[in-house]
Write a structure and sequence with these properties.
Two copies of one chain form a homodimer. Helix content of chain A is 69%, strand content 5%. Chain A is mainly alpha-helical. In chain A, strands 1-2 form a two-stranded antiparallel sheet. In chain A, a hairpin with a 2-residue loop joins β1 and β2. In chain A, α3 crosses α4. The longest helix of chain A has 45 residues. Chain A binds a DNA duplex (30 and 30 nucleotides) through α2.
DNA sequence: TTGCGAATTGACTTTTACGTAAATGCCGTG
DNA sequence: CACGGCATTTACGTAAAAGTCAATTCGCAA
């Protein structure tokens, strides 16, 4: 496991701009260390970026992603906080399950659409 | 099946504003008929709105939703167009499968996070 | 030491997806 | 027919999430 990544290495790996990574830092999603003014990204930062990109693809806002990332961290020490966190996690999971239903339905409709296209091709006598 | 829905009926059903439905009309996603200046939404419009909301929950932009909705429509008559459409549909399905992977991974991480919280509660001697 | 590319900062701009406000239209009811 | 209540149009506003640009500044190779 590499110790540090430069900002441009990560922009290439995740296909984002440096501006975007700095924006995420401003937003408190990542906190790379510095050598002088230069940012050094550790594997943990890289993993965070991976999670951010996943959240983005799923349509979560920066704030929602921030919340989700906090859920991945060490559980809090106080009982009330713990119970609250468990509740939040369960809510987020329900949201994700809804997204999954949406996803399956959309995939099913696209299946039908493709089928209809293929049938139409057959009608037109095109050999696939 | 009802013949027409009013705009407010649909805003309540889908929990969106009238502004939003008019915006979707401006964007060409729906095309309710008119009685005078008043919009009348048919079941087909209602179904479209359902599809739009699904797309939104999955994080698609208006333009992407427009594309997806076009895929649900009658297949085109010309062979080249048909083949192109099939290609587009396959691309969109691949995108959805990526989202599904993202979703499963996120759900798995949330499972872990919840587990950690529950364990922590047990350590603290809290009887769930 | 100088030069050069890569990195940083800060300010301004853009796009998307609506929100909000003002002025006005339509219509059923008392 | 006046009124209340929903609808509409037009126009401007805004928050989120970056993009873009200009002005440095660093680090290191020559």
């Amino acid at each position: 496991m590499r110790e540090y990544y430069t900002i441009t290495e990560l922009t290439r790996e995740f296909d984002v701009s440096t501006r975007t990574l700095r924006f995420y830092e401003d937003e408190g999603l990542i906190a790379p260390v510095r050598r002088g003014r230069t940012r050094l990204f550790r594997p943990s930062d890289r993993h965070l970026i991976k999670q951010i990109m996943r959240g983005k693809r799923l349509g979560f806002s920066i704030n929602e992603i921030r919340e989700i990332i906090q859920m991945y961290r060490e559980p809090p020490g106080e009982v009330g906080q713990l119970k609250l966190m468990i509740k939040r996690i369960e809510e987020k999971r329900e949201e994700l399950r809804q997204k999954r239903r949406d996803l399956e339905e959309t995939l099913a409709e696209l299946d039908n659409a493709e089928e209809a296209c293929v049938e139409r091709l057959v009608e037109l006598g095109v050999t696939t």
